[in-house]
What does this fold into?
Amino acid sequence: MTQPAAYAPNKAPVAVAGVMLAVFLFAIDATIVSSAMPTVVSQLGDIDLYSWVFSVYMLTSALATPIFGKLSDLYSRRTLILLAIATFVLGSVACGAAQTMTQLIVFRAVQGMGGGAVYALAFIIVGVVFPVEQRARMQGLIASVWGVASVLGPAGGGFIAEYWDWRWIFWINLPLGVGAAGLILAGFREQRTQGARRSLDLPGAAILLSALMLLFYGLLVAANQLDLVTAESVSVVVGVVVLLTLFIFIEGRARDPLLPMALFRLPGYSRPAYLSLLAAMGIFGFIGFLPLYVQGALGGSATLAGVTLLPLSVGWTAGSLTAGRVTPLWGYRKVCTTGMALMVAGYIPFMLLEEAGGMTVMLIATSAAGTGMGMTNVTALVAAQGAVPFQNLGVATSTVMLFRTIGGALILSIMGSILLQRMNATFTTIAGDLKTSMPESALQTLLNPQNLLDPATRALIPPDLMPTLIGALVNALWWAFLVGLAAAVAGLVLSCFLESKGRA
It folds into this structure.
């Protein structure tokens, strides 16, 4: 497969450095926020919106990915990635200034648009510059940046939240964004050929966004209802099905669709895309809820919650680099099957939780899961890129990344909904048992899960009530982690059906 050069040779190292820093910009935000979120919630309140800080970011990232993937086939990738970085940085500054959880969620949506575009364009540029036989190594190198950022992010986020001010977890993106933009301006020069001007599928994008927003709204509503089958929940399900059906209908007839349905008739493309979704669901179960377990159930600090994610980050980096080396030798199927098996194994101690053998076993488990994600993440993308014609490389790459971000957003919303639904049910039972011995106002104050996240309010909980509250959280987390395990098992099964080798 041949392709035009995108960079002048003497500028390629500078351009690649700029792309790597742009990916670092996106990755450091995702990981640094995770370990700081319990502290943010303890200050801003509204724990019922906890998962939305992650989900809305993933949702808008998911929408931006195919849009900018399509735009990258039409317009200057250099201009687009600079615009994406600017959007991300502006959103970051606004997030740092948020005064309520609602404001934070809105600004995270803006940040997600820029972040999704940055992430998609970075991998598209690598796919354009390098031929298929070199992509695994380069994609592994770029993906390892996520791992490096993940090493710094969790510990840094926890440290900043505990000893400084959590707002700086967002404001730190400003100098990183300026640096990435400067490198790209200095080193990125495209040599593009003029083709037929195509239109952007805005109706498809609008319907897809509407379907995803309705789905996540339904999950949030379900989290606060003891009865899951209601007229509202049924209406949401019907609405999501109708919108997705309409989206598929429009995409199948659009002149230049946002998601070309023809790609999904290629098993060499569709299977890695679906695997990317399941792998993302598996790994974000760890990233989103392990800090909540460490701080809420174990009573650890924000710094400890961040340190707990470090093995996952190191494993992700190691897995990405390993995949870049062994994929040409092992083939797609063997690498992805190994990766998903490691992720499944990583979930086992979390199904045992307090009986898992202590923190050491959990750190080993998260390391295994991170390594598995690194191996699967890189290999599935390379497999999908190698299965499509070069002229569809941009939209094909962004579609795989869309599936990743949808998977991450979906699992965070589902796990968040299950967590809150189980806790609400348990706390209602506890309140019924204690209402005769405690005033209603004091009872409602104590039976607030946010009290478990802040050391000061945690210390005010009566010792005889503490085990009951922690037990409620642990039970709710068990059910949430079960969903993440199910996604990982499904991904393991699917990985067995990938093609072993792609076409060059």
Summary: The mean pLDDT is 77. The radius of gyration is 22 Å. The domain at 9-190+256-424+476-495 is CATH 1.20.1250.20 (Growth Hormone; Chain: A;).
